[in-house]
UniProtKB/TrEMBL annotation:
Keywords: Membrane, Transmembrane, Transmembrane helix. This is Sphingomyelin synthase-like domain-containing protein. Pfam families: PAP2_C (PF14360). The chain crosses the membrane at residues 21-44, 64-85, 97-118, 144-161, 168-186, 192-210. Residues 143-200 form the Sphingomyelin synthase-like domain. It comes from the Bacteria. It comes from Mucilaginibacter robiniae. InterPro entries: Sphingomyelin_synth-like_dom.
Length: 215
């Protein structure tokens, strides 16, 4: 990394930190994220202990189950790396993603609690050691309504600035939506509901906290 780039990064983060509104959003966002990281493993382990309703999903019933974990997480972590790189250069991307992803986690906890679902038939377990920290390194199958995998990529779509990056994130969300159905880890309604939830959350957060980033 050249000296000019390093200086530019320092200047961007210094400017962000010296802006009271952004500094407060960053600190509160990090605090909320830290709490969620602590609570989520316990939450997911608890939901596995309760009974749930297995939906009659016609699309899944006509879709053979295959283990596509490697492709699924290759897409997710590639986009996560791209988003991280962009966020290093533009702190506002980091701050907005922090808030949007936290909002997604909170609303998913609410919907999962209110709508207890059993895993789809012929489910094939996803294996990803990197996200094990959020699940307490346990095999979680009932975090169903709505899809966290699709929501994660849609959050990146709304936070990234470059059109090419946004296209990659949106394409990734579509492909991941198909892959989680192929692996039978989500119902069709989980995948279809994710864009609606993330759209509404992004609109609310943009209006309330990030009016300068309206798209």
């Amino acid at each position: 990394m050249s000296r000019n780039v390093t200086l530019s990064l320092k200047r961007n983060w210094k400017t962000t930190w010296q802006t009271p509104s952004l500094r407060i959003l960053m600190l509160i966002g990090c605090f909320i994220a830290a709490i969620l990281i602590s609570v989520l493993p316990i939450f997911f382990q608890n939901i596995e202990k309760r009974p749930g309703i297995q939906l009659n999903d016609r699309i899944l019933s006509h879709t053979p189950a295959y283990n596509v974990s490697i492709y699924l997480f290759l897409i997710i972590w590639s986009m996560a790396l791209l988003t991280l790189v962009r966020a290093v250069y533009k702190p506002e991307i980091f701050i907005k993603y922090l808030w949007l992803y936290s909002a997604i986690c909170i609303t998913r906890m609410i919907t999962i609690t209110l709508i207890p679902l059993a895993p789809p038939a012929n489910l094939m377990n996803l294996v990803d050691p990197l996200t094990g920290v959020f699940y307490g390194h346990a095999n979680i199958t009932k975090d169903l309504f709505y899809s966290g995998h699709v929501s994660t990529l849609l959050a990146m779509y709304y936070c990234l600035h470059k059109k090419s990056d946004k296209r990659f994130a949106l394409l990734g969300a579509v492909v991941v939506g198909v892959l989680v159905l192929v692996q039978h880890v989500h119902y069709t309604i989980d995948v279809l509901a994710a864009p609606l939830f993330v759209f509404v959350l992004n609109k609310l957060l943009t209006a309330l906290l990030f009016p300068s980033t309206r798209q």
